[in-house]
Amino acid sequence: MAISGSKGGIEIRAAHFPGRAPIDAYGNGGFRFADMSHKGSILCLPSGIHGWEPKTPPIISIHDIGRIVEEAGGIEILLVGTGTELRPLPQDLRAVLREHHISADPMSTGAAVRTYNVLLAEDRAVAAALIAVE
């Protein structure tokens, strides 16, 4: 979240970097990218990098992918970083993503970060849902 002052007091806004950027580092409960850092999990989407709080990490559910579905037209591959271990995606989640023509690949968060950076450099239609790891 970003905090800024205003005449009416403090305004709290959702964390968002309005661009695509490689992930420079991960760990200690967060990520570094674009000379910035974020504590917590993130979504890397065509619209930018967003702070994200899955409902039941490290397993994500259909309730966690609303923003991904909203941007489905710009996403072909979704990399899902499930923490330190590979965890399968629930079938209902896979079905919704397939309906939107998105191929989902779960993997550890470290592997997802590395793969995301490669596909981003290749200018592929990639997105990532990355659960923060310590």
Folded structure, characterized:
The chain has about 130 residues and is an alpha+beta fold. It has a single domain, classed as MTH938-like (Hypothetical Protein Mth938, Chain: A, 3-Layer(aba) Sandwich), CATH 3.40.1230.10. Helix content is about 20%, strand content about 35%. The chain is built from three helices and eleven strands, in the order ββββββββαβαβαβ. The strands form three sheets. It has a six-stranded mixed β-sheet, with helices on both faces. Strand 1 and strand 2 form a beta hairpin.
Sequence-ordered SSE layout with sheet pairings:
Blueprint: E1 2-6, E2 9-13, E3 16-17, E4 23-27, E5 30-33, E6 36-39, E7 41-45, E8 48-52, H1 66-70, E9 77-81, H2 91-99, E10 103-107, H3 109-121, E11 126-130
Parallel strand pairs: 9-10, 9-11
Antiparallel strand pairs: 1-2, 3-8, 4-5, 5-6, 7-8, 7-11
Number of domains: 1
Report the major sheet: 6 strands, mixed
Tell me, rounded to a whole number, the average pLDDT: 90
Low-confidence segments, ≥5 residues, pLDDT <50?
1-6
CATH fold title: Hypothetical Protein Mth938, Chain: A
Strand order of the largest sheet: 3-8-7-11-9-10
Q: What oligomeric state do these chains adopt?
A: single chain
Q: Going by CATH, what is the homologous superfamily?
A: MTH938-like
Amino-to-carboxy terminus distance? 19 Å
Over all CA atoms, what is the radius of gyration?
15 Å
List the secondary-structure elements in sequence, H or E.
Answer: EEEEEEEEHEHEHE
| DSSP strand content | 35-45%
Shape: globular
What top-tier CATH class fits best? Alpha Beta
Q: Considering DSSP H and I runs of 4 or more, what fraction of the residues is helical?
A: 10-25%
Tell me what the CATH architecture is. 3-Layer(aba) Sandwich
Q: Pairing-aware structural class of the strands and helices?
A: alpha+beta
Helical stretch tally: 3
